[in-house]
Model the fold of this input.
Amino acid sequence: MAFIGMFSKYVIDMVNHFDEAVYSFLSVYISESCTKLMTVITHMGSSYTLTLIAVIIFLAFGVNRQFSVYSKYVIYNLVLTWVVNEILKVLFQRERPDVLHLIAVNGYSFPSGHAMISMSFYGLLIYIFLRHLHSKCLRVCITAVFGLLIFFIGLSRVYLGVHYASDVIAGFVIGIIWLKPMILCMNWFCISKYSSNI
Done:
């Protein structure tokens, strides 16, 4: 038990040092123009923006029979990821970083909701586009654009002082793990639906 306690303290200390080092590095670049940019980027992972995008996708995909199933799963994925994130926040109850908050926030810190939900939401879009786009150039561009967007949304949360770097990394990891069963369910449902219509 003593060994487990010592190991846990060692891991916690490592995480704390990592969080401090990342924030110290990013805080050097705090400026009015950079903060405006990071605020815009962080809003790309907000519940309001993602809901708006999901509704647009639902309306756009809904008119196409092949993509109508995807439109529903984009919304299911967004809602369920948000619920899981809220549950995890209540379970861990980690307080926000005690640093300068450049935007107003509330609630617990771990895991980062913006990081987790963005990874899940934009990650699912990447999968859908890659599955149906035949142009290698478009596939690379879509993956690069969404991949960079996810990364910078996470980075913005640390820069703005509202999350630890470990919150963001955990959010990314959980978002990726969450994507696997969502994609499996979506593919299974698509196969079942189209098979039943033959």
About this structure: The chain has one domain: 35-196. Residues 194-198 have pLDDT under 50 and may be disordered. The chain has seven helices and no strands. Residues 51 and 78 are 8 Å apart (CA to CA).
